[in-house]
Amino acid sequence: MKKGMFLLLIMSVLTQSGRGQEIACRVTVNTQKLANNSVDKSMFNALEQNLTAFINERKWTNFNYKPEERIDCAIQIDIEQAKGNDTYEGVLKAQLSRPVFNSVYYSPLVTIQDNHIAFKYNANQPFEYDDNSYIWSLTSITAFYVNLFLGITYDTYSLNGGTPFYNKCQSIINVAPNQEKGWSSSSSEKRNRYWLLESFINPANENVRKFLYNYHRLGMDVLSQDLNTGVNTIFDAVILLQQLYMRNPSTVSVPIICLAKNIEFVNVFSGAPIELKQKIVPLLRRMDAPNTDKYEKILQK
To answer: Of 43, 26, 147, 180, nearest to 93 (Cα)?
Structure first.
């Protein structure tokens, strides 16, 4: 089935699936690094519950999803500092996964760590958000990641299918104040939200979106029907990602994909023919040096 027809079919199914929201996100707010008596920890329990509702009960697209079709993700916010005047700083960690056709397996897509989380918060904080204005930093940060998750997920079902959601991420960046951490293109920290989005939407990085589609829709999704074709397609997709890394080693998308997928890479290629193993291991080691020891195990199986 041609990719355009496939996307239309998916959209039709989602539209007829009832009126369910799109996201199934597990939210955790961790205050363990704060001094025991510095804040009211129960206030952050409420933040966790309200942030979960903000993500999971809000409509983010024009499509409707069945409960089992909702996008699977997790967000953890580690509050590390109470700066006074109801201001807090910390780290956001996020994981996104996608179901593989004809299986119960969820393929990890990205693992992200955002070190630039800063927001004001008190017990009466309203969870306000608007696509076209910057009302509260935490809801804007959250909306950015939800739309990024949607963009990445839709890219895995149709080539460049996530463009509308990346555009929403860009809109959020455009209205965010440059002086706030995490949004600026001039930041010396090249792994902030600006550069994260840039790593997906810059035409020079088009291989990452080709990777997402080829690896998942043409590779993982066909493994149950044609193992040999699926593995070889996944191999070709990894080459696309490795080529991007060689051209632009500082791009943010490659390490967040490898961080999520290193175990899956090992599992997929461990049963491949020896010739394929000998080709893929040097590519993976070069692209993802921190996990070299894991990739060596491919040759041992």
So the answer is: 26
